[in-house]
Amino acid sequence: MKNFITHLPKVELHLHIEGSLEPELMFELAKRNKVDIPFDTPEEVRKAYEFDDLQSFLDIYYKGANVLIHEQDFFDLTWAYMLRCQEDNVVHSEIFFDPQTHTERGIAFDTVINGISKALDKANKELNISSQLIICFLRHLDEAAAFETLQQALPYKDKIIAVGLDSSEQGHPPEKFARVFAKAIEEGFLTVAHAGEEGPAQNIWDALDMLKTSRIDHGVRCVEDPHLVETLAEQQIPLTVCPLSNIKLKVFKDMQQHNIVSLLRSGVCVTVNSDDPAYFGGYMNDNFYALADTHELTKQEIAQFSINAINASFIAPVAKEDLISAVRSYTASH
Ligand code: HPA
Ligand code: ZN
């Protein structure tokens, strides 16, 4: 099964590029940019990655991003992730970035997006890995700040497919950003949002109704509302689920308790993703291995996660069909 997972073509739909900052690169950039970090070794950093909930993670995650200053830093960060995609046989990735984490520190929006985009172009040419970019608004900041960020993104419409919503879900429901998302849609962006990670099932309904999202990031708390689960299955509204993240942030007690497999069997379009792999202990393959280790999954079910991700992606319809064929023939030959 491990071998089957390793070589299965995969699509990632929930990855925060700032969350792929490995401690080694954090140290290298801290040195290069003369930024102080409160650790002596990368091992020490890893040991500090024990979280009680989403907020305790976010506090450390935003501090880690302080080492990212120049365009080259954003390039190096993104290139390192694309090399990990190659290793894990991820053939397409839809990547979140948080402009406000950087613009709040005086880093220009252009610096961030140019560094990221150059690495994505290189990966497309040299590694044959395709990608899309999604800008996320930080929901703990106010509506005006989100509008300002949307404004900064307008000149980069050709590089950004969608807008999203991340950071602290508790106390910052979807409705806070309904007007910003309406404007984003008017400007031609697709929309996604984190909902039902720590927040209630109602946030999923509200993200769909008020933000018109094409899919829901996390969404695992949908099970608290059986009518919602039925609707998600009937309308094939995708959930970008992140198993290792959910265990690290204590959304579930352990992987056995995780509901992704039962959602799959209920017909919900669930996908497997790594979220913030440098912080949560693994990239795409590790997330799949962890599920296969704790749940009795067939190869067809594992392949279905990949097919779901292809269907849930923003890839052009013809290319989707080619990818689905590739997954089906891979599965048939194993
Ligand atoms: N949830 C909310 N905000 C985030 C996450 C997440 O999983 N990762 C990075 N920012
Ligand atoms: Zn996330």
From TrEMBL:
Site for Important for catalytic activity, residues: H218
Cofactor: Zn(2+)
Annotated EC: 3.5.4.2
Residues covered by the Adenosine deaminase domain: 9-328
Keyword Zinc: yes
Reactions mediated catalytically: adenine + H2O + H(+) = hypoxanthine + NH4(+)
Key words, A-Z: Hydrolase, Metal-binding, Nucleotide metabolism, Zinc
Free-text comment on the cofactor: Binds 1 zinc ion per subunit.
MF terms (GO), sorted A to Z: adenine deaminase activity
UniProt function note: Catalyzes the hydrolytic deamination of adenine to hypoxanthine. Plays an important role in the purine salvage pathway and in nitrogen catabolism.
Protein name as annotated: Adenine deaminase
Native species: Vibrio marisflavi CECT 7928
